[in-house]
Hints:
The structure holds two protein chains of two kinds.
Chain A: H1 6-21, H2 26-42, H3 49-67, H4 72-109, H5 127-142, H6 152-160, H7 173-176, H8 188-221, H9 228-259, H10 277-283, H11 286-300, H12 307-325, H13 329-347, H14 367-388, H15 392-402, H16 416-435, H17 446-449, H18 452-468
Helix pairs in contact in A: 1-2, 2-6, 3-4, 3-5, 3-6, 4-5, 8-9, 8-16, 8-18, 9-14, 9-15, 11-12, 12-13, 13-14
Chain B: H1 2-29, H2 41-52, E1 61-64, H3 67-72, H4 75-82, E2 87-89, H5 97-111, E3 115-120, H6 134-142, H7 149-153, H8 156-169, H9 198-202, H10 213-228, E4 232-237, H11 242-247, H12 250-269, E5 273-276, H13 295-309, H14 311-316
Parallel strand pairs in B: 1-2, 1-3, 3-4, 4-5
Amino acid sequence: MQVNSIDFAIFLPIVFAIYWLxxxxxxxxxxxxxxxxxxxxxxxxxxxLALIFISSLLDYSIALxxxxxxxxxxxxxxxxxxxxxxxxxxxxxxxxxxxxxNFVSAFSFFGSEIKPNTLNIxxxxxxxxxxxxxxxxxxxVYRRKIDSTKDIVAFFAxxxxxxxxxxxxxxxxxxxxxxxxxxxxxxxxxxxxxMRQILWGLFKKIVIADNCAKYANLIxxxxxxxxxxxxxxxxxxxxxQIYGDFSGYSDIAIGTARLLGIDLxxxxxxxxxxxxxxxxxxxxxxxxxxxFKNYVYxxxxxxxxxxxxxxxxxxxxxxxxxxxxxxxxxxxxWGALNAIYFLPLLLFKTNRNNxxxxxxxxxxxxxxxxLGITLTFTLTVFAWIFFRATSLDHAFGIIADIFSPSLFTxxxxxGTGNAQTIIIVVAIFMLIEWLxxxxxxxxxxxxxxxxxxxxxxxxxxxxIALIWFKADEQPFIYFQF
Amino acid sequence: xxLFLKKLILFSLGLIGLLFSVQIIWFNTYSTPPPTxxxxxxxxxxxxxxxHHQLQSDVEILAIGSSMSLINLNSNSIKKxxxxxxxxxxxxxxxxxxxxxQLIEIYQKKYQPKTIIIASNIADFRxxxxxxxxxxxxxxxxxxLSPFNHLRANNFAQAIAEAQHYDWYKDDxxxxxxxNFDASGGVNYHKEGFNIDSARWNGxxxxxxxMVGIQYVYLDSISRYCKxxxxxxxxxxxxxxxxxxxxxxxxxxxxxxxxxxxxxSIVTAYKLAFINSNNRTWPDSLFVDISHLNKEGSLxxxxxxxxxxxxxxxxxxxxx
Lengths: 481, 320
């Protein structure tokens, strides 16, 4: 069930109504969340429910065992059982084909032909997200950062919580699980804020991402037919598509959770206004970045130790992050490229600069900030070419075509009139994002800044934009990860 | 909770009122637009034409395919040569072999045609792009669709653009995107007043990656389907204006000839009729661009088909 579909528009009000009719009966509310989450997930393919059920049951049981004590060796065996099974599921479903292809290529390189037993494996939607969520719980119990839970309904609801199940934010047990233990009272301002964030998320997805996708797909899928300047335009369309798509989903997820009285972590913080790459990574897919930092980067030693070790750790961090996105060399290259961007900042110890909001309390940024934002944005757009391309050859072909004399021609794409409108809409969108950059999301302050009539006019304007600019419904990009 | 629900209901009521007003203004401004059963306005308009056409079953001859069938086949000439009024032209712009194959099954159920004519050129073998919703199309032909179909399938901007375009071109035969169908569903381009676009007139040559293999597979499926259902298929390779033919380089000629040979071998393998009109020259005065004929051209082309086919002989052929 897509969160921007009619199905979800019917599903959510039903869940919302029953949920609050249960009059703050915690157990029943948790049970409802669990049932709704399984219906939501089973809507795609009910067969995958077994997978999420096994993952949840395994980590629930292992965490209880971990809390019962035992020797360090026994606890390590328990932890590794969880890691192996969870990552085993992920590897089987997501990376099997990739490894088989590479195995075959390696053999054919040495002159031996092998016929692999290829399986037509369908990737269960959102597997990378809930696997990481349930895994972090077991690791945290192992590290004694949190206690295991005996409340099986609360735990299962935590793993499968439908607003963020298929595309994050990847929640940590420390933040989300305790919220299933306490009574939730209906809070008007929280619910209104949730609705506002859902509306903004829908705008990002339907108006920005789906419309940019039309042109990004057109240009990337026929890249050989386009000039350098058109390819740059295609890369820009994809840059806004992926931001609108993914941060839009996060907004809808966070807003939906708020309607149910639950707070999820912020996942995006206006990343395209970052002044360097380190800041970008503190603001883009925050929940995944912090997951990798805590469970991969820090255990490797982080930024402590010899320079060579630090460089190795940074490369591992970004390569793993790239590989998490998909079994393709393009994602690995994208990860490596970001590591290369990041390294100078770490080595010159400037990666912790720019921790606050850009141009805080001001309308316009300084010249230095503009230069920083422009450079970071350019580097990011360049890296997205690898993320979007179908292969490394495709990506390098696009880059070669970009850096050709045709870069200095006027971009041409089919239906240019409409593309111009979309460019204007994206510009307005970025302006709204800039003006709202101090909030949790761009239009958060509308709730307090404007009087009711103005506020309603703005909400109607967004709703009409949703209808006016509705393009072909595109599946959320991050569902495939 | 009460306050939240109250505000939500108020907001929703306001929105419904707003949308309702827009609908009223729209229906008072534009003609009833065709249903959105594809991303192709011509096909959508053709769907509306077929829905309201007097012929609803037992068709003798059915033309199908792209603008080649829509524009280059002359309805009156077909009726005259085949001595029947039970002819319908279902063609629309941009319909390649893939779409044709899917549509033939729908038309076979509805019309049970005895003969199918496909007029085609190399452009019909490009990457498919029409995105027809076959279920909605069939449902529309048989039962009808919700009046809000065009809003559900499109955004407002697209829906209004389509409605405007429909209003502009439903009676205009001097424009490339004319939707002015004759009684059988064909379009005749008027020579007088036709504003020829120089880019379309000059066109471009044929590139080796122009065609996609899957379209040939679908042509094979079409031929097999016709054979299995005892439908006489006539596949006609449409003319290219002489001015362009003379300008084609060796590679481009080779690509065109290879295409024609390939198509011929597929169709004739099932012992179905294949006619290549490029065996003779077609003067530029019969065209509005590289391959679309004006009314005079379509008459000559359809007569040429009948002559090549020897209609009387063809009608007596039994394919079973």
